[in-house]
Amino acid sequence: MACTGRFATATDYDNLMCTDLDLTDPAVQAVVENALDVAASDIHVMMAASNQCGCSLAAWALVYLKKLNILDAAVVYHCPCGNAITPESRDTIRGWLDEQFELIRTGKISLCEGMTGADYPAFGSAQQALTEWNTAEIIINRS
Fold first, then answer.
1. Structural domain boundaries of the chain?
2. Which neighbouring-strand residues pair with 57?
3. For the residues of 14-47, what is the DSSP string, one character each?
4. What is the pLDDT of residues 102-117, one digit of tens each?
5. Which of 76, 89, 108, 131 is most exposed, with the fewest beta carbons within 10 Å of its own?
């Protein structure tokens, strides 16, 4: 998936924010879609920073990114459409968004299908030199 376009529609925004917008009005729809487009760019930057633009997104990631897109549009870009968000709520949501963006940027959350995040536990064992041949193989493999 290329890092372009928004992850949510105006209808998605309306449903999540419980706004009851008149989306039949082209002006209202344009305002919401513009806010979603601008907010999606924040997500694209984080995905690009962690090299997650060229993969197929996991099914759960699509819904997660839609939520981030809507909240970013509502809070950071002060989309005039929708329920009034108190300054305290705005700060709380903005902090949560910053945390989520950092997790994506650092690869701690991998949005790609079949991939695990950077903090996924891994197990390995060291090869042991039990014989002369093992020792030689270990030395050859080091170079």
1. 10-142
2. 112
3. HHHHT----TTSHHHHHHHHHHHHHHHHHHHHHH
4. 999 998 988 998 755 4
5. 131
**Residue in the block written with tokens 């002006």:** 27
4: nearest Cα among 37, 46, 32: 37
CA angle at residue 55 from 5 to 72, to 5 degrees?
40
CB 75 within 8 A of CB 94: yes
First to last CA, the chain: 37
Residue 39: which of 1, 2, 79 has the closest Cα? 79
State the DSSP H helix or E strand holding residue 77, giving kind and residue range, or none if neither: none
Could you give the 3-state DSSP secondary structure of residue 86?
Answer: coil
- The distance of Cα 140 from the centroid of its chain, to the nearest Å, equals 42
Type of residue found at 9: T
24: tokens are 């039949």
pLDDT digit string, tens, across residues 3-23: 899 999 999 998 888 888 888
